[in-house]
Amino acid sequence: MMQKKSDLSIIRRWMQIGFVILTFLIGLRHLLPGESPKGGAFDAFCPFGGIETMWVYLTTGDTLLTTNLLNFSVLLAVLGVSLFTGRAFCGWICPLGTLQDMFAAWARRLSGEKNKPLGKKSQARFPVQIIPQIDKWLRYIKYLILGLILIVSTKAIYPPLHDICPARAIFSFHWDTPLLGIVMVVFVLSSLLNKRFSCKYLCPLGAGLAIFNKVSLIHIDIDKHNCTNCARCENECPVDIPAIPENTQSTECIRCLECLETCSIPDTVDLHLG
Fold this sequence. Notes:
By secondary structure, the chain is mainly alpha-helical. It has one domain (2-212). Helix content is 53%, strand content 4%. The chain has a two-stranded antiparallel sheet. Helix 1 (2-28) packs across helix 5 (95-110), helix 2 crosses helix 3 (69-85) and helix 5 (95-110) crosses helix 9 (178-193).
C-alpha cells in the first residue's frame, strides 16, 4: 500500500513539472522571430478564456480579442477531466498551482524547516495559516470574482482577466503593461506567505470547477471506523481543508491525494469509482 502511494506521488510530481514546462514553452514560442505561431495569443491556451468569451461567442459568433476556438477545446478537455476526477486539474495539471506548491516549500526551507516529517504540523514561520473564521469567508471571494467576470465579459472586447492574469504574467513573456509585473510580484509573495493563496481565495477557474467535486465519477472515501482523527491529512493538505474525514467531497478539495499519501492506517483513505 505504501509503495503504491509513493509511486502515485512521483507520478503527480512529474505531471506537475511536465505541465509547467509545457506552459513555459507555449509562452516562449511567442518570442521566436518571424511569423506569428499557430494557435493565436497565449490567452488562447487558457481554459478560463473559454468561459470568458463564451457569452460573446454564443450571442455574436465572434470571440473576445486574444481568444479563439482553441479556448473552447482546452476548456472542454478540462471539464472532461473534472467530470471524472473533480478538481484534479487544480491539483495535478494547473501550472499556477504547481508554482504555488513550490513557493510554499521554499518558504518553509527559508524560514528554517529543511525537512518536514510527513503528516506532522509544520513548525516553520512561513507559510502562515489564516485564522479559520476569516479563511472560511475569504474562500467566497473567488466565486464573486467568477460572477463579476461573467457579467463584465458580456460587454468586453478583451478577456476581463487579460491585464491581471497571473498565468499570463508568469508564462507569456510578454509584459505589455506594468500591471502584469505587479500581478507577478503579488502572486509570488502571497504564495510564499500562505499555501495556495490564489487557489483558495482568488482563482475563478477553481470556483467554476468546484461543483465537479460533488458529481465526479471518482471520489475520495475515508473509513471513519479506521480513522483515528490524527490530523495527518489536514497537516499535509495544500489548501488547508479542515476536518478532512468529514469533508472528503469538499468543493475546496483539489484531488491532490495528499490525504491518501500521508494516512498511516492502511486502507483508511481510498479512491472509489461511482
